[in-house]
Amino acid sequence: QTVVTQEPSFSVSPGGTVTLTCGLSSASVSTSHYPSWYQQIPGRAPRRLIYTTNSRSSGVPDRFSGSILGDKAALTITGAQADDESDYYCKLYMGGDIWMFGGGTKLTVL
Amino acid sequence: QVELVESGGGVVQPGGSLRLSCAASGFMFSSYGIHWARQTPGKGLEWVGFIQSGGTNKHYADSVKGRFTISRDNSKSIVYLQMNSLRTEDAALYFCARDVRYSCDYWGQGTLVTVSS
Fold this sequence. Notes:
The structure holds two protein chains of two kinds. By secondary structure, chain A is mainly β. Chain A has strands at 4-6, 9-12, 17-24, 36-40, 47-51, 55-56, 64-69, 72-78, 86-95, 98-101, 105-109.
C-alpha cells in the first residue's frame, strides 16, 4: 500500500530557511503527481500554498516555494516568520482521479 | 466570491448513515470537480473522494469505497456525500474543496461527524 511520507515535525529559527519534503513509499515523486502544498491550523480549513509543483497561489508570500528535490516534492520557506508556525500537508495525484495526502509536518518557528 | 459551505454533520450510531452537503456559490459550479476530505481530531488530512464536473465519474479512497457515494446536482450547485455503514473511524471533520489543476484551491469550513453508540 502506497504511503505519502512527510517529516512529522520540523523546527526553524525566525528568519531561517526550512525545506519540507513529500515522498512516496514505493516510487519517486515527479511533476506528474502534480504536488500541491497546504497550510493548516488544526480544525480550520486548509489554505493552498503551492500547486502543480511550483506555482504559488494568489496572495501567498514569495518566501514559499515548491520544487522537486531528488525523488521528493519539496516546500521551502525562506525567511521564516512566526506566523508560519502551522501544519503543512502535501497532496499528490496518483492517477485515475485518485489523490493522497501526506501525514503532515508540524512546523515550529523558534 | 467563491464559497463552499458544508452541512449535514451530526451524531450517528455505528452502522448508521448520514448525508453531507456542500453548497457552492460565486463560481460556475458545473465546470469544476469537487473533492471531499476529512480530518480526525489531532490527526492529518485524508482524501475521501472526488466527483468530476459533469457528475458521471467519481472516485474514492479505499477506506470508504463501497460505503460512501458522492453525487452532485449542478442545477442547485450542491455536492453530496452519502455515508453508509459508518464506523467509529469515520468520525471526523469533513471538508469539501474545489478542484483546480489537480489541487484544492477553495475549501469549506467543514462539518463534524461523530460516530458513537
